[in-house]
Design brief:
The protein is mostly beta strands. It has two helices and 40 strands. A hairpin with a 2-residue loop joins strand 38 and strand 39.
């Protein structure tokens, strides 16, 4: 017979009240008493506007226990009592909700239940989710890509121009005049720009080159950033294209010169899709290609290309989205595939955590991270901190823009997701400027986003 114990919500309440919800109170008004919880609201920075419920759950080794969930409406409905077997690896989670929409969250330190009379439970700090606040107005073309360079952002725009934007004042200087057909990819220290056989890299300077090897790819080649390369030598890859589906070209800035190096053809080519470079340490790395297209259609498999031996191209059947996913190089040997549209036409909320191995194989981690709250296709992702990413933009199944951004946190296993502030209507690109701080840039304004303390 399995022994169990009752988690006292009085203990949970005291923990939350001491360092949690009430700790957010500054010049409070409108207090709501909930059993032993004291839920307070700050008129200047309300952590949960429109909140309708509070949920307390218990997880063991990251997995929520179905019988250990207590939820109450703020109207005064009592909690049910969660039941937890004796064991270790438990954490408390407190979620503040508006319907099913998460507004604030906190997670405790790990604790154990080993006797019927449990002492004090761990403290829970409940943090409001981050939000966007207008930083400055501007009047400029619509941005489509951005890379941080010092205290500025180098921005690629929809009209093909390139601008330098001050990250604090939004003052904008044009670096490259508009032209049709230009494509942009952000690298760790600047912005790579290509069109035909022309290429530029903008950091503190402008590096330009012309190469026929680049022109062979055409406008629908996959551009892959290398985010984990040698410091001071930013690199990217052009892969495939309808006119040369097996072509592979490396672009690197070496000694201040933008070099274009054609590599041997890949073993299995195509065009379109999205991709990232996944580091494998001493084994080099792989170009991970999601949504690869060829004459037979669009693949739901993961295509892995070894830049050191391009003929050794592998496909791994992982049932990934065929279009519209955001792909993130997370840790060495790991990528995240977020949202997108399946081969059956379903807009997805999945967050797939894919582990890539040096042997050329890959597996989806099980259990998967929590799904997005808002299924989306065509979204993008911005780095917040190592293992934490802001997923934003895209459209839902009806084609409407998904305004609310979401934080994907995979520092633990399997990983958690929390919705956060709404992206301003006119903002189209989000880029990191500091740890836990990003800016969202639109044609008419720039906004600063600060991640909540619960994700620091």
């Amino acid at each position: 017979m399995t022994r169990s114990r009752v988690v006292s919500l009085t203990s949970v309440g005291r923990a939350v009240s001491r360092l949690g919800l009430v700790s957010l109170c500054v010049a409070c008004a409108g207090t709501v008493s909930l059993l032993s919880f004291s839920v307070t609201r700050d008129a200047l920075e309300d952590p949960f506007p429109g909140a309708t419920a509070v949920e307390v759950s218990v997880r063991q080794d990251g997995v929520r226990l179905p019988r250990a969930v207590a939820r109450t409406a703020l109207s005064g409905e009592p909690f049910a009592t969660p039941v937890v077997p004796f064991g270790t690896g438990y954490t408390l989670r407190v979620d503040v909700l508006d319907g099913e929409l998460l507004l604030a969250r906190g997670t405790s330190a790990t604790f154990a239940t080993q006797r019927s009379e449990q002492g004090a439970l761990p403290d829970v700090f409940v943090a409001p989710l981050g939000r966007f606040a207008q930083l400055a107005t501007r009047s400029a073309p619509t941005p489509v890509a951005a890379a941080r360079v010092g205290d500025a952002l180098v921005v690629g725009n929809a009209d093909g121009s390139v601008s330098r934007v001050d990250a604090h004042t939004a003052l904008t200087d044009e670096l490259l005049v508009p032209a049709a057909g230009r494509r942009f990819v952000a690298l760790p220290s600047g912005l790579l720009v290509t069109t035909g056989g022309d290429a530029w890299f903008f950091d503190d300077d402008a590096h330009a080159t012309v190469a026929a090897e680049l022109a062979r790819h055409g406008p629908d080649a996959l551009l892959v950033p290398m985010l984990d390369g040698t410091p001071g030598e930013p690199c990217g890859f052009a892969l495939g294209g309808r006119t040369a589906p097996q072509a592979l070209t490396r672009l690197c800035v070496v000694g201040g010169v933008l070099e274009v190096e054609p590599l041997p053809d890949v073993g299995l080519g195509g065009w379109g899709g999205v991709g990232v470079h996944v580091s494998l340490g001493a084994d080099g790395g792989r170009l991970a290609w999601v949504g690869r297209q060829d004459a037979g259609g669009t693949s739901s498999a993961l295509t892995l290309v070894d830049p050191g031996a391009p003929q050794d191209t592998r496909t791994v059947a992982l049932d990934l989205p065929t279009t519209g996913a955001a792909v993130i190089a997370n840790a060495p040997g790991e990528l995240l595939v977020v949202g997108g549209r399946s081969a059956a036409g379903v807009v997805l909320s999945d967050v797939a955590r894919v582990v890539v191995q040096a042997s050329g194989t890959a597996v989806r981690a099980v259990p998967a991270p929590e799904p997005l709250f808002s299924p989306r296709q065509g979204g993008a992702a911005a780095w917040v901190a190592d293992g934490v990413y802001l997923v934003y933009g895209g459209t839902n199944a009806g084609g409407a823009a998904v305004r609310r951004a979401e934080l994907v946190d995979v520092r633990g296993f399997p990983g958690v997701v929390a919705p956060t502030g709404e992206l301003p209507v006119e903002a189209s690109v989000v880029a990191p400027v500091d740890d836990h701080a990003l800016v969202a840039i639109g044609a008419s304004a720039m906004y600063r986003y600060a991640a909540p303390r619960g994700f620091e």
